[in-house]
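Sequence only, no structure available. Ideas?
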Amino acid sequence: MREYTFAEGLFIQATARGFMEDLYGVFKPGSTVPSFEQVSEVCARNADVILDLMSKSANVERSWVESLSEAEGELLMLAWWRVNSGFFIRRVLRRAIAEAPQSSP
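Reply:
I predicted one. Tokens follow.
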């Protein structure tokens, strides 16, 4: 499992918009830090893109990821999230900052 490269990140920003939108929903300002279960639910709602993202990060074919048992797949998803969560959380935070009301001087 590896982190995404800069170039991959640009592509992912364009192709994983739905996932990042849903992720923003659970990380939105004023909310508590989401549990892994909440993040897992977001991943399940975006299963098609998540399978692609996991296979890219693991340098394996998507069919290999699809062939994993439920327990193996969950372990892979945990490893993927641990390695790449920063990529997604940075984008969520940038959006939150951009959308935050600006204080008057």
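The CA atoms of residues 26 and 34 lie 6 Å apart.
Hope that gets you unstuck.
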